[in-house]
Amino acid sequence: MIHDRSRLDPDSWHPPLLVLVGMGMGKADLSEKALSWIRHAEVLAGGGRHLDEFPEHGGERIPIDSSLDTFLHRVAQASKDRRTVVLASGDPLFFGIGRRLVQAVGEDRVLVLPNITSVQAFFSRLAEPWEDVRVFSLHGRSGSHAGVSWLDELTCCDRMVLFTDPGHTPEWIARELIREGFSDRFLVVAEDLGLPGEKVRRFSLEEALDGRFSPLNLVGVFREPGSPGVQEPLPRLPVFGLPEEVFSHEAGLITKLEIRAVVLALLGLERGLVLWDLGSGSGSVSIEASRIASLGKIFAVERNKARYRDLVENVRRFGCRNVQPVHGSAADVMSRLPDPDRVFIGGSGPDLVEILNQAASRLRPGGRVVQTAVTLDTLEAARSFWQDRSFDMSVLQLQVNRSLPIGSSMRLHALNPVFVVKACRSESA
After folding, report:
1. Domains with residue ranges and CATH for the chain
2. Nearest-CA neighbor of 286 among 274, 299, 269?
3. Are strands 159-163 and 134-137 parallel, antiparallel or unpaired?
4. 53 vs 23, 41, 281, 299, 398, CA distance in Å?
5. In what order do the strands lie in the sheet with 391-398?
6. What is the distance between the alpha carbons of residues 91 and 163, in angstroms, rounded to a whole number?
7. In the chain, at which end, N or C, are there fewer CB atoms within 10 A of the end residue's CB?
8. Residues 158-212: pLDDT tens digits?
9. Share of the chain above pLDDT 90, in %
């Protein structure tokens, strides 16, 4: 249910309504409406820097200490019978305390007064639009967000802004970028935005390694203008449905576009999952999977040396950092891989039953295996394997005909028919 709070007035404010005020970059960004709610508060809560902006306020103060859970509990208790305002940086629902506060007290009890975000302020200092910018928070996240690395996301964008913490400083960011080969990037570090000592400075990665920065900082990672970068040709390609000719591959030995599209649909990819691509060949399935879903990791396994070289080249060309090429027989290397959520088997040879056994035993709950087969023997081996196990198994057959010119008309040319086997493990298995 959506609640209309637009007519709420501080003169008629009654607990347990709690007011969450975004401070923007500081007190100067507050509207008269927000200041009126603050004046009517009996309790002010927030960080020490924000509380210090109101030395004249006579209400009780609840500062954020080392334990956010304790702070939220005190706020929830105080707001039950006293008019309470929580002061927060920027827009509190944009990588701020808003999410945790609403979870703690319930959305029915919270009135949010948003303000400009630090990212908005950052780009206003640069006089640049920011609608295409990716934003990640490194605060307490070990460099990832929802299981997806910021470095993987950076591969596909020219501009990113990172919220930092004491463990993920501008120096740390520069070191990670150098280690991962992002030599075409530079940093813009905004320190103490909205405060008297505000500084916004540009650094090369090497300069940032030796920098000294205020703990209150925001980091922009930008691609150098005109730098070649592996991603330059990608905007001219479709998001999904890459033609075979854009891949380095051995003639004819590639999962055709139409088959690939069905395989990816049947895999049911979700953010953060682990995918095994066994017998990956040129890696077309892995690369398309990487481009359409922010998977946690993709392991593309290929034993043929020439095809493995194609795989490595395609991963490099498309900049798919979350695709890990693995050279070797699938049956031999699977034991060294982390448990998968999804498995695609595009080639297996004589090891099919062993590969299926390992995949079935290692597959996580709710996982699925998708396999292509072009011979009846391979289809029957796969069908026989799954039919006696606690998996939901289905088979479909694809027959693709492509048009070819013939004089002033056209004819249809049939590609080899392909069987696709899908086996799904239940969530409780």
Report:
1. 13-116 (3.40.1010.10), 120-223 (3.30.950.10), 234-425 (3.40.50.150)
2. 299
3. parallel
4. 10, 15, 62, 52, 68
5. 323-327, 297-302, 274-278, 342-345, 368-373, 418-425, 391-398
6. 14
7. N
8. 899 999 999 999 999 999 999 887 888 999 999 999 989 999 999 999 999 999 9
9. 76
